[in-house]
Amino acid sequence: MKDKVPLLEIRNLNKYYDNGYHAVRDVSCSIDSGMLVGLIGPNGCGKSTMMKCINKLHPISSGDIFVEGVSVKEQGPGELARKISSVPAQLKTSFGLTVYETVMMGRYPYMKNLWWETENDETFVVEVMEKFGVKHLQDRQLHMLSSGEMQRVLIAKAYVQEPRLMLVDEPTSHLDMRYKLEVMEYLNAMVQKDMTILVAEHDISLMARYCDLCIIMKEGSLFKIGPPKEIITPELIEEVYGVSASVGFDNDGELFVLPKRYKTDRGSF
Questions:
Q1: How far is residue 47's CA from residue 177's CA, in Å, rounded to a whole number?
Q2: Most exposed: 65, 70, 96, 184, by fewest CB within 10 Å?
């Protein structure tokens, strides 16, 4: 029987910037389809850089990345966009686009004639806007949206690409508790459709609650990978973050992390 090919396989990935900084250090891992995966680590540990190597926003210095067994190096932008979609941490500019126009941009990898969407594209986009609760905002420009609304629009845009892999960078960083949970519920529901989602996030308790697998990074390297309830411990938090923390389980069996003190070579504060 032929071995199953992982959806995403990273082999000995290294990324150097032009100034010589070694941002990602010899990372190797593989992820199957139908999983919600948390990418966790301190600021500057290489999370966002690694995701930008996966979707070719950054060139790979050495090593390789495979999506469904095919190297990303061998795939053009259009082909890759039909397999991988991305949700950025923030939208730097909106160019005056409306919600409808933004979500429709996710269909462009499938369009045979530039700027000419089909009736099926239009129907699909409307259905997805309804699914993500933003259809009533379709004529509103992006700069008029709240952070929670913007996040749902960007996820809807990524969803209509019909990707096999979705890369989501810090989706809850500017959201209150309700919208954090709402966004994670949307992401969790999407992986049930056999789509794998890789989420870079700082909220460890949130990742532990929703993710099937967590990848822990430290100083550009893969520190540990596994189910969150098995690998997230006080010792791991101290080693990766330099923070003394309590790790426990609530009455529903959900893991939580309570940071207590920042530790330095001079002791705790």
A1: 23
A2: 96
173 or 54, greater pLDDT: 54
Q: For 211-265, write each residue's pLDDT tens digit.
A: 999 999 999 999 999 999 999 999 999 999 999 999 999 999 999 999 998 876 6
Same structural domain, 157 and 171: no
Is it the case that residue 62 has pLDDT exceeding 90?
A: yes
Domain span at residue 111? 95-162
Q: Are 170 and 202 in contact (CB under 8 A)?
A: yes
- 257 falls within a domain: no
pLDDT on residue 187: 92
pLDDT band at 112 (very low <50, low <70, confident <90, very high): confident
CA 131 to chain centre: 20
Here the CATH number for the domain that contains residue 46 is 3.40.50.300
Q: How many domains does the chain have?
A: 2
